[in-house]
Amino acid sequence: MIKDFNLAPMKYFTLLALVVITSLTARAQQDPLYAQYINNPILLNPAYAGLNNNFNATLTYRNQWGGFDGNPKTFNLNSHLSLVNNKVGAGLILSQDKLGIITNTEVQAAFSYKLPLDDNRTLSFGMQGGMVNFRANYNALTIPDDQRDDIAFSANENLSKPNLGAGLILKSDRYMLGASVPRLLSTTITASSTGQQFELYKQHFYVFGSYVFFLNENVRFKPSALVRAVSGSPVSVDLNFNFNFNEKITVGAFTRNFGALGIHFQARLGNAMRFAYIFELPTNNSVGTRFNTHEVLLGVVTPVFDYHDRSISSF
Question: Percent of the chain at pLDDT above 70?
């Protein structure tokens, strides 16, 4: 009989039980969410590696649904640059996505080939490859006494699998369109405690687009959209509406399936640095308005070779 199983551990256990049950019923884990995908497209599409003809380094941290026990937390560090007279690009992506006791860590190398269509348009083909490490730490669970002998919680998981991804981007001074599958391999793993197989990942398909309207010499309006699709789940759509002032300050708003609303702020710090912050508020159609999301980005964009671009790009 459980006497001291208070509300917080119960919520935590319930969340993690859902994760385990979901996995064991062969429903794959979702990709991490990024509200600032248009500021850092390499997170979703390897074809963006070196596409702005500069050196880029970006650090992103997302704390989703703060205050919710076992809430998702995502950390990403990536860097990429243009090489060989801006004909190709190369990059490295490190990420960690944590949901309760489940942690996914990825290391990916990205490569792109850029094909100029004319003086203004470039078509970029990208590939990425690396490893995905999956860990489940059942020791962190608060388990009721009558379930401590359950075989499902008898052994922690620590497994690594290879990954391949591909993407395509068409970019000009005014617009950018992209399509990608960051994980081409549907990864299946076997639980060491039960011997049961489940899918770690299913293929996620992304299509995004953005266009810049020059309202006057100092103000630009840049709407963008992202469509995310995966088998077995509803299609997800992000809509973003940003205003840029003097190529220094960007403010805007966005929604994801109208189940989350957010505001976006970005500032250029000097010639190379940029800082961005997003505040996201779920609606009652999601987890409820009391669980807010914060996403912070710190980045560097700077030329390092003579053939790199010294102008400020909209993308």
Answer: 80
